[in-house]
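Bench notes, bay 3.
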Amino acid sequence: MSIAMHDWQVDAVLFDLDGTLVDTAPDLAAALNVALVQNNQPALPYETIRPIVSNGANGLIELGFGSALSSDQHEKIKASLLGHYQQNIANESTLFDGFEDSLLFLEKHQIPWGIVTNKPAYLTLPLLEKLALINRASCIVCADQVNHPKPHPESILLACKQLDVLPMNALYLGDAERDIRAGRLAGLKTIACTFGYIPDNIDFNDWQADRYIDKPADLLTSLQPLL
């Protein structure tokens, strides 16, 4: 089945993971602060860490430790941070409040939804399993399944291929410019999630998304079919 969104045909909906579909910031912030304390550095406030979470472990390390680390230091800290995160991957992470109704709506109308993330599979799959989402998603494409992660369109195109949908008839939601760029390059309609992990100085208009939503519940409003 397809859903008509004004002049859009929607045969599938794809989500970025961190900061878009799932609020993973609490657990990633905790992992960074563990690494900081282990290295005799002060922990950072959650509000400082949250906007950087979409940049992954490397972005978190740069936030906490600066950019002057040696390669060996960086890799040692990264291993520690990701090790702690892996062991505590869903202590506080949750589906963003308001998306469950959208997922149920899509499932009711047999519209497949999936996840396209720059997170590696060894962290993505356990998280989704803990959140009882792994068997609901019709496809899950992680960074280590492609040669070029976002903002390259390869991972989004792979998801469309797995779902057997035309990119022009799919949506991609993300909370970072690279998400919207990847979606646009792949030929999808794009929705920017302004509630995600976004620094205050970002101008969303620069992303050139097709639409913007300020809260997860806005997606369901947009998806309501004209039936």
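Next record in the batch:
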Amino acid sequence: MEPDAKFWDGIAEKYAKSPIRDMEGYQASLDRTRGYLKPTDHVLELGCGTGSTALLLAQNVQQITATDFSKAMIGIANRKASEEGIENVSFLGIDPFDPQLTTETYDVVMGLNFYHLLDDMGAGFQRSHDLLKPGGLLIAKTPSLGSTAFFKRVALRAAVRVMQAFKKAPFVDFVRIEEVEKAVVDAGFEILETDNVGGTVPRSYLVARKI
């Protein structure tokens, strides 16, 4: 993951200043997620970026541990938390497999626009399963580039490969919605809810319980 960490480090400040493209969809996902959270929950967010989602959800839970493998992103997240006076969110510049994250610790694991950035999505879901307490919830929103129309998919693949060659894009897995769901089930989850939330690229919003 080191090359991708360097990519995200390099764009962290620009990323932090960029407006959310689909604010309506983002707010809808936040509201949907809040419906699954309890005031006593200890939540883990994987791929938290500059911390916006964790900080917005902090008032709904007891504690959030938010991680990202870009330390530059985490630096910005910590700055925002300090400015907003939010004290129940801890930001860590680590990847999901770091031993600092201990098994069966969290009530909820969130990965919003994250799992498709792993070179082994299935391992990411399995790691999330391990980190959850028995009966804990996985909440994942995953861009499914593999579910776009054929010609659009071909064009996207070509564009991403060119950008990657010039270090202008990270690894991106062109997963299909059904592949995301299968990987979640194979990791030991029972899917409670799944929906294609649409947009320019299909996005699978999924909630599953550890079994």
